[in-house]
Amino acid sequence: MALTCSPPSRFAQAIQRGEFLLTAEITPPKGSDTTAMLALAQQLKQRVHAINITDSNRAVARMSPLAASLLLHQAGIEPILQLACRDRNRLALQGDLLGASALGLRNVLALTGDPIHIGDCPDARAVFDLESVRLLQLIQRLNNGLDCNGKPLPDGGTCLFPGAAVEPQSPSFSGLERRFYRKLENGAQFFQSQMVTDFEQLERFMDKLGRPAGKPILAGIFLLKSAKNALFINRNLPGVRIPDEVIQRLANAPHPLEEGIRIAAEQVRQARQICHGVHLMAVKAEHLIPRILDEAGIPPLSS
Prior knowledge:
single chain, 8 strands, TIM Barrel, globular, alpha/beta, eight-stranded parallel barrel
């Protein structure tokens, strides 16, 4: 038996109203003290529609995103629970999804997950029982009152609003198209992109796939803190190529972080002309996201 999901999540309501969507990313603590995480979330509460809580991003072990998302929810802040297939089999994923729905957490970003070997527990055993498309399938089943085997859930289904990641800068357009449509077909209601550096390529993606799909696409905007930071990303993040002129701007700037804020704000303005929203990533500098939005001319949310 599927649950009646009314009203929709606040994030889903913003999508229904056709607002330019704003989300940001916060990493849960590497420990049990959530003071800093909650303080950052409060700073962002009136600036973004929802806050992504990462799931041991880059395979670095951190607090459960389910627990961290609940803490935000209890503080009146809209979370997007990131859930990766790397560390859980389908039983555990189903259990977390049922628990999330019972706790009132609606928004879920279905991810495959970063490889174990790049993180801080390289000897851990990877699971990958499912990947992101099949995780979306599982969410769709649970929303329809069915378990991972397609059998009825005797105590009711879930009220989850699923999203997925997309890579508009993928070197293989056919691969991008195939994965994008599979995620659409399996219930993705919104898409957040990886870090965007080529806005012409983003526009081509939107023309050919994004706009015709009829689901909101949020461009990933990353705060670059220095030329060294940009060069590190170019070396270590597959599929991302920060242009030389951007690196040179950072290298020549007397205050590279201030220049990074300006660059991010420019990118937000570019994205506003192309897609439905932005997903802001400012690792270890999330407190600067309001400044980026101010620089981009985006005021605080009205509600």
